[in-house]
Specification:
Radius of gyration: 21 Å
Strand content: 25-35%
Order of helices and strands: EEEHEEEHHHEHEEEHEEEEHE
Number of strands: 15
Oligomer: single chain
Number of helices: 7
Strand order of the largest sheet: 6-7-8-3-9-10-15
Largest sheet: 7 strands, mixed
């Protein structure tokens, strides 16, 4: 894995050699730190929800932002939107430098929040008109999509299900025809069919070019062919970042009977080992696989398995639904250093 490039020049290597310009990024953060006031202790020191985060969201791709609850995913999205100030670092969104204080979100950005909330007496049609008052929105497209998803346009939102509220938020975001779409846990309140339909709709959106998606989610099952770029965060820091295809080629998933597995000794090559049913599973770097015993089982990990074991290695319980549960504690000496990997050698 390549490590973070030297600072401050983003186009020179450690020797000062000029490098080719990086491809455009829809979002670029460097050393981003966000502090939030304590809810329970108003006079206490603020909590660092995001700590020196380096993040690149390549333009024209789907990036998944993954981590356990409380890892800093929603805080990161809200900071990108300008809804939260940041105390240190740099942030650019669609080429616009965001100031440390709250600023207006750049044009071309739309968001689907984790928990859409609207005044109880409003209808879906009223919600759309309110969105339209804040910026360009295709009302006909909003109504057509909502009707197709069986969302009543003229009933109070207080009478709708949580899944229907999510569908309203998705319809409003897509009706803006955004260049950058931010999705915060969009699948959490959707049934399996609605989830599949949304993924297919987003796939179609990405075929039109000049579109970027940043997706915060716990639900990665079946997403390997949809997500291009992966960012895993723990405790507000990126612990792994890179193109999904390359990351899954750099690691192998090892499976071995637990009585033979070197899962807990300091010299173990396993990353995030866990044991269940008499079998130990963990990631191993491809370069370390050659010296392993021939009877171990090795295969390419899914994106979900990659995330789960990296979170274990970082000392973070895996998010619900991230991968099949393995039921073991993370190994303290196998945590991979924060790193990034990409064909573009991105931040």
């Amino acid at each position: 894995m390549s490590t973070t490039p030297p600072h401050p020049s983003e186009h020179e290597d450690a020797t000062g050699t000029r490098l080719a310009p990086e491809p455009p990024a829809a979002v670029h953060a460097r050393d981003l730190t966000v502090e939030l006031p304590s809810r329970d202790r108003p006079h206490a020191a603020p909590l660092r929800a995001v700590q020196e985060l380096d993040l690149t969201v390549p333009a024209g791709q789907v990036t998944a932002l993954v981590g356990a609850n409380g890892a800093g995913k929603t805080t990161t999205l809200r900071t990108i939107l300008g809804a939260l100030p940041f105390s240190a670092g740099r942030l650019e969104v669609l080429g616009t430098a965001m100031g440390p204080a709250r600023v207006a979100v750049p044009q071309g950005v739309a968001v689907v929040p984790d928990t859409p909330a609207y005044p109880e007496r409003w209808t879906a049609r009223k919600v759309a008109r309110a969105y339209a008052a804040a910026g360009p929105l295709d009302l006909a497209r909003f109504e057509a999509r909502s009707t197709a998803r069986r969302v009543p346009l003229d009933r109070p939102v207080s009478s709708l299900s949580r899944g229907q509220l999510t569908q309203i938020a998705v319809a409003a975001a897509l009706a803006r025809d955004p260049r950058l779409l931010l999705l915060d846990e969009p699948f959490a309140r959707l049934d399996p069919l609605a989830r599949t339909d949304l993924v297919d709709e987003l796939r179609e959106m990405m075929t039109r070019g000049d579109r970027t998606i940043l997706l915060s989610t716990h639900d990665l099952e079946g997403m390997d062919r949809f997500v291009d770029h992966l960012v895993v965060i723990a405790d507000g820091r990126a612990v792994l970042e890179g193109e999904v295809e390359m990351l899954c080629e750099e690691f192998l998933l090892l499976e071995q009977p637990s009585d033979r597995a070197p899962g807990s000794d300091p010299g173990s090559p396993l990353i995030g080992p866990a044991t269940t049913g008499g079998t130990t599973r963990g990631l191993v770097a491809v370069d370390d696989a050659a010296g392993l015993m021939p009877e171990v089982s090795l295969r390419r990990p899914t994106m979900s398995e990659l995330v789960t074991h990296c979170l274990r290695a970082a000392g973070t319980p895996p998010a619900p639904g991230a991968a099949p549960a393995s039921g073991a504690h993370p190994a303290p000496d196998t945590t991979p250093a924060p790193a990034t990997t990409s064909r573009r050698e991105e931040s």
